[in-house]
Amino acid sequence: MDPDGDCIGSSLALGEFLTRLGKSVQYFNEGPFGRREIKEFAHFFHSGFSREHRRNKDSAVAVVLDCSTLDRIGSLADDVADMTTAVIDHHSSGRDFGDVKFINPSCPSTSLLVQQLIESLGEKPTLKESEYIFFAFATDTGFFRHLGENSQASFQLVAKLVEAGASPRRMYEQISSGVSLESRQHLGMLLNRVESHFQGKFLYTWENLQEINSYGRTNRDSDSLYQQLMNVEGVEILLVLREEEPGKAAGSIRTREVIDAGKLAARFGGGGHARAAGFLSDLSVEETRKQVFPVIEKLLSSL
Question: Which among 10, 41, 191, 200 could bridge 65 via Cys, Cβ 3.0 to 4.6 Å?
Answer without folding.
Answer: 10
